[in-house]
Amino acid sequence: MTAQPIPAAPDLDLLPSDVETDLRRSVRAVLAKTCPTEALVALADGTDEVSGPAWSALAHDLGLAALLVPEEHGGAGAGPREAAVVAEECGRACAPVPFLTSAVLATSLLVRLGAAEPLARLGEGTTAALVVPAGTGSAGAWARRAGVEVSGGRLVGEVRGVVGLPADLLLVPVDGPDGAALHLVPADADGVTVSTHTSLDATRSVSDVRLDLEAGTPLATGDQVTAALDHALATAAGVLAAEQAGLAAWCLEQTVAHLSERRQFGRVVGGFQALKHRLADLYAEVGQASAVAAHAAAALAGETDVPVSVAVAQAFCSEVAVHAAEEAVQLHGGLGMTWESPVHLRLKRAKADHVLLGSPDAHRDNLARLVDLPAPTPEAG
Amino acid sequence: MSEQHRSDLEQRVTALLEAHDPATTGRAEFLRARWDAGLAWVHFPEGLGGLGLPRDLQAHVDDLLAAAGAPDNAPERNGIGLGMAAPTILAHGTPEQHERFLRPLWLGEEIWCQLFSEPGAGSDLAAVATRAVRDEPSDEWVVNGQKVWTSSAHLADFAILVARTDPDVPKHGGLSYFLLGMREPGVEVRPLRQLTGEAEFNEVFLTDVRVPDAQRLGAVGEGWRIANTTLNSERVSIGGQAVPREAGMVGKVAAAWRAAPERRTHGAHRRLLDLWVQAEAARITGSRVRQQLAVGAPGPEGSATKLVFARLAQELSALEVELLEEDGLRYDDWTLTRPEKVDFTGRDAGYRYLRAKGNSIEGGTSEILRNIIAERVLGLPGEPRVDKDVAWKDLPR
After folding, report:
1. What pLDDT is stored for residue A189 in this prediction?
2. Taking every annotated instance into account, which residue ranges of this chain make up the domain Acyl-CoA dehydrogenase/oxidase N-terminal (chain A) (predicted)?
């Protein structure tokens, strides 16, 4: 039997505040206006008339680029609960904006390191991206794949699969013999090469970053960098769960709406029990995903139970989002396979989100350690 | 407002405890005093054991009284009475019926059971065939029929009964709701043994059982609507309780995993972690449903609670049997017993695996619950109803 008990569940407020409800309403209205389906679909054809206006409306009109920037640095001083509300709406709308990568992930890292000057710039609308490979869910995961080193006073290396570019400012963690360090590099500096790929999810770009430039003085070094990385990645992972919950809710609603209209065999097809039961099961999952994401945001806000809450939220909401999107494609029938339909956008985003900050399997592996459910040992196997 | 309620309640509890010290007061006397103080169920009206306060305040009262060493009304002995009969009687009963039934029910002096399901009316509850015929001279109803899956019938003093009073109209409109005395002549209770070996439930045979018209709840023909009050209470009462992390079935499986490192496999590990996450998601969702109920805004996701609970209980208990390997082949006891209290996580792994099969049947099958969610929450079309406009007596059987 286990020697120590597993972490007890905290008692968290899972209901939205009035401020959060108002915020949700504002974000939903802005995204409905700025993210029409045709424009989102056109992204994959190389036409981007949507990401600029959408981000401008969120960042400048609603001031959400600086949502997590403390007030003393010119931001709104809000927390993970508010960020989760915005992310949930971004997920519903499939918004092609750097909210998660810049306003949550990069910002949380800088806030934890107390980086006043860059935070003030983020508050004014500068965007930032953390230069780690997609799939990185913790400082430990990053250290196993760190691609950049400081060599002869130069920052050298390549990081593949970075999300959140283009951005104005690159946050480059480096793992060296003296421990971790975080360097700030302007994206337009000489010696920075960003090659952007065609991405599975056209609403979120994937790039490789090559660096070969003067290292300069790091923003921070040592354990505080790894601690801040863990904090920022956990915050982003918890907030991503809300994006996934929002995306799943959209898929359910659209599918129910479609099946309530579509007729075959002289009946509204949503009346067939085979479909009703699938949607009822999906409804149960979507409701749970929303609760679990709210729980993760509340845990992050209260700085309690963060590792377990975030791992549960990622393991659960990642799966629900993909399942909801796959069900939406299937239950839209032939329509779900078409380029014009908004459904495939969610499938692609859901599948990319699945990988973005650590797969559900990676988060379950974390949980195995956190709640004392260890894997089989080789000699036992 | 809530703070005001709480401090007011705390004063009432203190007054009750001062006037009736649990250390020196007999159990029955204390419970009667608690009823009179309106602290039995605070969400009930004044004069009926309550104070007309929000329901969630009751837990606070219960905690205070338990901390003071006060006796409770043994709610586990009268689950059907407290959870289903009482809210239905309160909602649809006359003042005389409130006066007659609620107090002894809460005090535990009268135990209740539920006579709804029949061999020919399970999911299709509105098809019940038990007949109640009015005997004008005596102002009584004469009941004949067979009911099934009745827990506590052998202990019960009263039953909530749905019976057919008009076979000449379509099925939903011909039902009425009665409060039937289980000690009356003509009531025969037989244990119904189930696949676990025990008999939690009974079959109840009703032969010319007499029910005074004063024990009819609501109007003649209103039985279906009233039964829905009862059934909605049941769906709230199953799977809605506050639980700590790893409580219930998942805790049993986790303990089995931790106890036997040599039995661990990678496949089982993957399933275990997946189910652990799902159980935690269900726990969190339950917390949110309770928070919504507490502020009077129940969210629709509550309707899916039982659906999820049943599936998880089955998958977890199945995994536990496998994790136990050779010990999973054992069963504690097939003897026919009649447990008064059912514990889904009690006894051994084999029992838990078998008993969990009932979770997706009792209180509405998972299939019917999916229909309900799809139709009432998602607004999808109802099932084709071939029996909707046909007189009950003309339905094929």
Report:
1. 97
2. 20-117
